[in-house]
Amino acid sequence: MSRRPTPDPRSRRRRLALALTPALLAVGACTDSGEPAPTSTSTPTSTPTSTPTSSSASSPTSTPPSSPAPAPVSPDDLDRATAVAAVAHLAGRIGPREGTSPAFGRAADWVEARFTALGYDVSRQRVDVPAGVSWQGAPLAAGRSANVVATPPGFDATEPHLVVGAHLDTVSQAPGAEDNASGVGVVLAVAEAVADRRTRLPVVLVAFGAEEPRGAGDALHHFGSTQYVASLTRAERGAVRAMVSLDRVGVGTVVPVGSASTSDPVQRALLEAARRAGVPTVAEADERSSDHWSFVRAGLPAARLGSTPYAGYHSAGDVPAVVAPAQLERVGRVVLAWLAPRR
């Protein structure tokens, strides 16, 4: 739900882009050719020896006005309808999307199309996943998952930037509305809000593959984010100023802000951003059960939003009705306040 006092045509264009299918996008690219108007080829009637006067000389080409600088992003730029629609599609239409399954592939295609429609450069990062057991003990074969990574045009990974991510996969028996279509939905709403707004640093947006555990311990958990961090060069690691993981963010009325230790700068910055955005929070320590932990283990600053307990956790009851649109909006507002340029 947009809070802007007047309609923003760029927001309308973004929402239209999000509604387009990849096929329609392809048609639009082919039909909108934008060919220039033909130039005049008529010859002058004067003789070759005539000297043109200043009045007959061609006028100088006018310089087009420069585009205004983008406005800074604000929590009020969030459209929660984008997050709600993502939950409905991922959990309601696609359903369970274990990280190596065909359903996960369809979900990754859909998220990639959303990022692309918003103007981001999108890439897939291969994630190899070992065999293991599901949450309820059923065997899982080894397979392949993927991270869907969206960067702004012209992005340089060796320059300071922020990362906002959420895992796209589910355990094999759950539609995963809260865990974690809610997180992906807020990432998409944030991507929409910052697409034509200024942030304090460039933002990388990631839908991680294969976060859910395939056994006990870190070695069988967080495969997508572990691969993302491992793929970074030393210069790229040094450029990551902070990462935030959105995991189970659609339940409750207070936003949990988790740190892997007792406290850290990213957690404190998120709590302060929430205060500015008028969002109630609760600080949580020793939170290591989401993708931010892959960053923290590698020495990178990171924290988590979300984790309120709910009845449908990792079950067939994790359906869209579990998710509260107002809570999605609260979390999105916290993220945008955190991304906003500091005054």
From TrEMBL:
Signal peptide as annotated in the record: 1-31
Biased composition (Pro residues): 62-73
One annotated GO molecular function: metalloexopeptidase activity
GO biological process assignments: proteolysis
Protein name: Zn-dependent exopeptidase M28
Region entry Disordered, spans: 27-77
InterPro entries per the UniProt record, alphabetical: M28_fam, Peptidase_M28
Listed Pfam families: Peptidase_M28
Species annotation: Nocardioides oleivorans
Gene3D superfamilies associated with the record: Zn peptidases (3.40.630.10)
SUPFAM superfamilies reported in the protein's UniProt record: Zn-dependent exopeptidases
Lineage, uppermost ranks: Bacteria, Bacillati, Actinomycetota, Actinomycetes, Propionibacteriales
Listed Low complexity bias regions: 36-61
Record keywords: Signal
